[in-house]
Amino acid sequence: MGFLDIFKKNSKSANDAEAEMGETRMLTVECLADILTGNEMTEAKAMEIPAVAASVEYIGNKVALAPVYLYSKEKDGIRKVENDKRVHLLNEEPSNLFDSVLFRKMMVKDYLLHGVCYAYKKMVGNTITELVYVPPEQVQKTWSDNVLDRTVRYWIQGKEIPEYQLVRIMRQSDDGVNAEGILQTNKSELLLAYTQVLFGKKIMDRNGRKAGFLTVQDKLSKEAFEELKAKWPDVYSGQKEATMVLNAGVHFNEMSSSVQEMQVVENKKYDSEKINNLFGISPAILNGTATDEQEINTFETAVLPILAALEKGLNKYLLLEREKKDRYFHFDVDTALMGTMEKRFNVYKIGKEGGWMQIDEIRERENMKKLGLNHITLGLQDVLYDPDTKEIFIPNMAATMKTSGKGGVKIDES
């Protein structure tokens, strides 16, 4: 080792220390200040807000309903890859403790609230054997400040994890390392809604009674004061069935406005709608009055972007490098959109009559036994054109027409 190598080694150590300090600064300046002032918005607090919990549950359920498949680009078109272990992990059993529904719902919750979701790939060689869900708070990381060539190191419970084994999908980030979810980007709105939840709880604890104080005209005797002090909390809180008679000269003075005066109900409804909008959800969806158009619009704004992000993440982390040029994962959104049996059957009817769905394809979607009917329904009024042979077939006339290069048509009825 030469003399200059000593400085190179020391320089690398300095960069590592600087990377570690990068995360420390973020924790102390941003997080610690919120903790000390009581303005920290945590996942636990957010999930106590009914509108947040309902929105996360709705999106998570929709994502969980959409099966994901692996497709391959072949010379003769797109082919679905059958019997792939990764597809089974994503649609059935990602790990021994999680099924696919719970796995996806947890990933969606983290993606929305924290801005990032993690999964650890257990591998044997190049084969992925399990996808283990990892909560964001269990992942520690350090990174360099080099914008052009940033390096990141990850730890889970003190064990360093190779970067390629940690699936990470981000909602929003300025540097590709630190993500921002709704807990960070919309903290003020969530804190206001959480304060209203606490306020409502206090009102219920007092059975709707207003806050106030007692005044007396004359000084109470020690016995009267002690009796008032002992009985008043039980009477005022409403926790016990108790009755109390105030002595002469003792008066209760209200300090706060009533629930109606403060328009708590109206404000709560307004804030709930604002929170629904943060998730891209129409309020009518959650109260059961949504139209078909509102359901489709909500799916496009609240669910499709997450499915697209998940697809990109799956393609990046679950495919081998040699597979990435001609294979890709894709969610079947039709399953999540069809909804009721009546809606599904109407879609099938349109697809069958339009000639782009076969009977056995429909039966397979409904988990029914195939009948071996592989034909496509066509009407006599249809005209079929083959772009390869430049031929037009008219079933109603039992005639074939060959188009010429000059736009002419030659009829062959043989």
Question: What is the secondary structure topology, with strand pairs?
Answer:
Layout: H1 3-37, H2 43-47, H3 50-65, E1 68-74, E2 77-80, H4 85-91, H5 100-113, E3 116-124, E4 127-134, E5 139-143, E6 152-156, E7 159-161, E8 166-170, H6 182-185, H7 187-205, E9 212-216, H8 222-237, E10 250-254, H9 264-278, H10 283-286, H11 292-318, E11 327-331, H12 333-338, H13 341-354, H14 359-365, E12 384-386, E13 391-394, E14 399-403, E15 409-412
Antiparallel strand pairs: 1-2, 1-11, 3-4, 3-8, 5-6, 6-7, 9-10, 12-13, 13-14, 14-15
Helix pairs in contact: 3-5, 3-9, 7-9
Describe this structure in words.
The protein is an alpha+beta fold. Helix 3 packs parallel to helix 9 and helix 7 runs antiparallel to helix 9. The strands form 5 sheets. It has a 4-stranded antiparallel sheet with strand order 12-13-14-15, with no helix packed on it. Strands 2-1-11 form a 3-stranded antiparallel sheet. It has a 3-stranded antiparallel sheet with strand order 4-3-8. The relative contact order is 0.10. The longest helix is centred in the N-terminal third of the chain and has 35 residues. It is elongated and about 115 Å long. A hairpin with a 2-residue loop joins strand 6 and strand 7. It starts with a helix and ends with a strand.
Short description:
The protein has 14 helices and 15 strands.
Q: What's the Cα radius of gyration?
A: 32 Å
Overall spatial form: elongated
Number of strands: 15
Order of helices and strands: HHHEEHHEEEEEEHHEHEHHHEHHHEEEE
Approximately what portion of the residues adopt beta-strand conformation?
Answer: 15-25%
